[in-house]
Amino acid sequence: MPASRLWVVDVYGRVFSLSTAGQQWEQCRDAQMEFKRVTAAQQCCWGIACDNNVYLNVHASDLPIRYQEETYENQRWNPIGGFSDHLLPSDRWQWSDITGLKHQPLDSFELPSSSWEWEGDWYVDENFEGEPTEKEGWTYAIDFPAFYTKNKKMTSCVRRRRWLRYRRYKDMDTWAKIPSPQMETPDPFSDISCGGWEISEEPRGRLSLWAVSLLGKVWFRVGIYHHNPEGSMWEEVSVPGEVLQISCGPGDLVWAVLWEGQLIVRQGITRDCSKGTSWVEVESPSPDVGATHVAVGINTVWALTKDNKVWFRRGVDSHNPCGLGWISMVGEMITINVGLNDQVFAIGCEDRAVYFRQGVTTSELSGKTWKAISVPRDGDRSHSSASTNSLQSAGCFFSGEVRAQSVVSDVELDTEKVSTDGASCLVTSTSPESVVDAPTDNPDQPIETPKPRIPKVTSDSFISELISDREPAKTLREGGSAGPAVPEEEETLPSEGEVKALCADVAICPSQSGGPLDPQWSNVDLEEAQGQLAQTGAALDAADTSSLSSVATYTLAMEDPYGTDEHPLWAWVSGGGCSVDSHSHLNWFNSVNTSSLVGSVQSMSLSVTSAQTAAWRQQIFEQLTERTKREMDNFKHYEQAIEQSVWVKKGTMQWWRDWKPYKWIDVHFALEQFSGPEGNKDGILFIYYNFYEEKKYLHAFVNELTILVPVLNESKHTFAIYTPERTKQRFPIRLAAATELEMHDWLALLSVSCCHSRGIQGPPSKQAIWSITCKGDIFVSEPSPALEAMPYPTPCDQMFWRQVGGHLRMVECNTVGIVWGIGYDHTAWVYTGGYGGGFFQGLASSTDNIYTQTDVKSVYIYENQRWNPLEGFTNRGLPTDRYMWSDASGLHECTKTNMKPPSTQWTWVSDWAIDYSVSGGTDKEGWQYAADFPVSYHGRKGKTDFVRRKRWSRKCKLTTTGPWQEIPPIALSDVTILPCTAQSNVDEVPLWAISNKGDVLCRLGVTALTPAGSSWLHVGTDQPFKSISIGAASQVWAIARDGSAFYRGSVSPQSPAGDCWYHIPSPSKQKLRQVSVGRTSVLTVDENGNLWYRQGVTPSYPQGSSWEHISNNVRKVSVGPLDQVWIIADKVQGSHSLSCGTVCHRLGVQPVEPKGILWDYGIGGGWDHITVRGNSMEPPRVRLPSLTDASAPAPRSPIPFRNMEVNSSAGDS
């Protein structure tokens, strides 16, 4: 899980953040003023400063924020001058938007704020519906508005072209002021809350921002999304009363607190109405004490009352945002906030510490207990050791939290400098009335005191309340000191020679006789008062101390307002950008001071010299060498003992019978393993079953097994066993274990036995072929040199595949061993070099390079309805219709209640929600319409549409282990690595990727030693992309989301990102989906499953000339570094039925025949991805015998390849 941050504000208005992977508070150094409150999301943080303006801090990323501005230039044809700018009075503007209703000349576009900058000048878009236009980019039509084409016709009377310009958001990792005209927000804001990012799915990426003004009005920020983080304007939302505070959750929950203490809930919040429609009032947790604070999450609501009691609202969800009732919780807090995954953070009432609610899960949203976050600030560790030494040398201890602060810098704390400059720490007694007045060595010389920086203290009621309600006397009595408390009669004061105090370091303590115990803030310029105090150089009397204590309890004149051993005082917390859950490992709760331990370790390390270390190593090496000679060399003439043994493992399972009627029957399963005379291991599988009361069995040799595959089955724990013969038939041996643990035990045992019998051990080689099943399981195969040999290559069905731990959607490799993968949640992972993981334990897995891996995927079901003349669309269909709640095919009934995660390893992490990102579009309610089931669906209802469907999605999460490490933070959808064999270990390997938003990225710093790389370099595009591939000589090809192909020019090691994109025409009437580039070959797959080869690709003309069709029924293609062609094919004929997702190899690929000749079918179905871009093994040269050479041996008969045809379907043969 990538690191995220928890944001807090202290009582002095300084903003800090704490990383989930860190152990200290980091201050936002760029903040030029104090802040009142902040509200965070994962990508940004909003805040209200003390000047009452709203500020935005967008977290820096390698992926820039770009916004595309567009306008259209319109022209009409006339008989005299042809096309010109002279339009008819009824025509649209010469420069307009796409509708023609808004006038948009080029000079009318301005930057929304100073946080933006233009990337370049205006230019013409030469792409039209995936096809390149003429150089001028014109599209033609008969009139405005009409259907436009890129070709000019005799009836083309009007034309238009699109102009584009990009602006980039530049103020990253800094607080940028949000422009707010006076007419939008007449009064300043006092509270702010962001959320709503889970209301709508990407790519829209909306964000809801709510604010409360000082007059109790509620405002909503319109137009916040990924490409416009600032939003566009504020809109007022009517409320039933004056609002004190508001809270917005990640979903559709918005609660607010009124000044009278009541709570109101916003209703009607949907994907298309983020502001909601109305308010509903909810009773306060306590009838006598009103509410002061509320915090909401996804399915949880927490509240605080005026007596600082904590309350939890039960029964809250998207269907019932008001909940059912209040439950009183333990603790007293002044503020509370709900972060991601409904995790709760709060600030304590007494100690002002940040607390984390432990034990919050989806089943127990209220959690179990509060635990204080105890970590230092980023400046604490550098001061701790010097401060401790100074205190010990002075022989004084402090027994209260309220004490005077030192303005001595780090350099001045040195002992020699202290004695020279006359600076030392100030000493106070335990009595609040006593003040130590230490004289200086030379009273005639004026002491030059550096002018301290004092934060401006305003009369803001919020901060003054937080400062004033802390009781120093109470804290002193309760014993919050950092050092041991010394009784007053035993306290020893140092002499005047030992203690020297700066005039600025005067203890400001409340007087028990004249000063109030609960002082309040007032509008006093502390900087001026402190400056006058420093100039006089005299100690304050009791009256002066009393008057100053009424202004502030804590000394604000210092650079650091807190003492060295005093914990900071927090005023506000926001966990909206902090991604933690009940299983997260956090280092926030360890407050042990390790300075003494570090010092002791350093002293021990310094006592051992390098010469002693070298002598020890030499002595140990000599002893080991002598032992080896004594135990090994004297027994070399003896014959090595080889254990020849046989052992059997038995169990009971169920077997899917091979003949009709096909059904599950109970069988006895046995694995018999034995060691041969030469030490090699092998085994046999036996399946014993009864057939008409006759005992029979099936058997298979372990060295003949080609793959062991877990199979998805809702009711059974199933796995399949393949042999070469059963691979040809597409009908494996299917077995079902009683439990998932038993299935994993058998899979691990069988996999280890297969590897031993074939002599395979350790991690995959650099030449390995990687593949992924539709279930997300990862498999590798070690290729043989004869795999690409002609005319007798190794058949695909004889390849052995072994499983690697982890879970991915796609994987990509290259010839130097760099392997990247992408999960279903678009998280990027890099291969660490290990093997095993998952259910592989012990000897079947490496002990290092195995890490925890998570993945999140969506499960979909469909709600189907049919129209009837009486009631319209209802859930009552025809008898021949599909289920009203079904899967995508309509053959299986799937409802919200009976739908389960894919397996027991997956757990639900969200509720069912409408999915609007369906191909073909939806209406506002998520429906798709069609004439009947099943045909193509569209988002608008037509006159002939009698059926409709709605897709529901629910997310589930998998946690496993494998040799993979996460590469945060950008989510990816595709990745490609240069498969060049000439790359060395020190040279950078080009790696390109596409983000889930369609941005093209180039990874820098990728080598064999650092496969994860260092940073991303963004490559500009005019539209989002979906597929990319890099081949030899840095040929970069990509596919846009509209199905058009592009070639990146001038890519080289000196210019890794290239200079420009060249638009390549797609095959006629086809939209491309995926591309793969090899040494000289470029192959693509379109959305209809057709495989295309790019002809005419040469070093001088790398764009090629035309497309040639090779095959159909192709899902994925992978071109290797030697131009090998492998695909995932659908509709492959087996002995019983058609198989989808089959690995196929193109045979006959040679320089003279780059398209190949025929297909060889391998493992399948159920496969979803394959990559051979790491296999650079040159095939052996086969010398064909001469017909005139009588002594030459007879040629070997060719291998009879099955189901192969030239330039035909990859599956229908």
Automatic annotation (TrEMBL):
<feature type="domain" description="Peroxin/Ferlin">
    <location>
        <begin position="926"/>
        <end position="959"/>
    </location>
</feature>
<dbReference type="GO" id="GO:0006914">
    <property type="term" value="P:autophagy"/>
</dbReference>
<feature type="region of interest" description="Disordered">
    <location>
        <begin position="431"/>
        <end position="456"/>
    </location>
</feature>
<comment type="similarity">
    <text>Belongs to the TECPR1 family.</text>
</comment>
<keyword id="KW-0472">Membrane</keyword>
<protein>
    <recommendedName>
        <fullName>Tectonin beta-propeller repeat-containing protein 1</fullName>
    </recommendedName>
</protein>
<dbReference type="InterPro" id="IPR006614">
    <property type="entry name" value="Peroxin/Ferlin"/>
</dbReference>
<feature type="domain" description="Peroxin/Ferlin">
    <location>
        <begin position="64"/>
        <end position="125"/>
    </location>
</feature>
<dbReference type="Pfam" id="PF19193">
    <property type="entry name" value="Tectonin"/>
</dbReference>
<dbReference type="Pfam" id="PF06462">
    <property type="entry name" value="Hyd_WA"/>
</dbReference>
<dbReference type="InterPro" id="IPR010482">
    <property type="entry name" value="TECPR1-like_DysF"/>
</dbReference>
<keyword id="KW-0446">Lipid-binding</keyword>
<dbReference type="InterPro" id="IPR051513">
    <property type="entry name" value="Tectonin_beta-prop"/>
</dbReference>
<keyword id="KW-0677">Repeat</keyword>
<feature type="domain" description="Peroxin/Ferlin">
    <location>
        <begin position="137"/>
        <end position="170"/>
    </location>
</feature>
<dbReference type="Pfam" id="PF06398">
    <property type="entry name" value="Pex24p"/>
</dbReference>
<dbReference type="GO" id="GO:0000421">
    <property type="term" value="C:autophagosome membrane"/>
</dbReference>
<dbReference type="InterPro" id="IPR006624">
    <property type="entry name" value="Beta-propeller_rpt_TECPR"/>
</dbReference>
<feature type="region of interest" description="Disordered">
    <location>
        <begin position="472"/>
        <end position="495"/>
    </location>
</feature>
<dbReference type="GO" id="GO:0008289">
    <property type="term" value="F:lipid binding"/>
</dbReference>
<dbReference type="GO" id="GO:0031410">
    <property type="term" value="C:cytoplasmic vesicle"/>
</dbReference>
<keyword id="KW-0072">Autophagy</keyword>
<keyword id="KW-0968">Cytoplasmic vesicle</keyword>
<feature type="region of interest" description="Disordered">
    <location>
        <begin position="1185"/>
        <end position="1213"/>
    </location>
</feature>
<feature type="domain" description="Peroxin/Ferlin">
    <location>
        <begin position="854"/>
        <end position="915"/>
    </location>
</feature>
<dbReference type="GO" id="GO:0005765">
    <property type="term" value="C:lysosomal membrane"/>
</dbReference>
<keyword id="KW-0458">Lysosome</keyword>
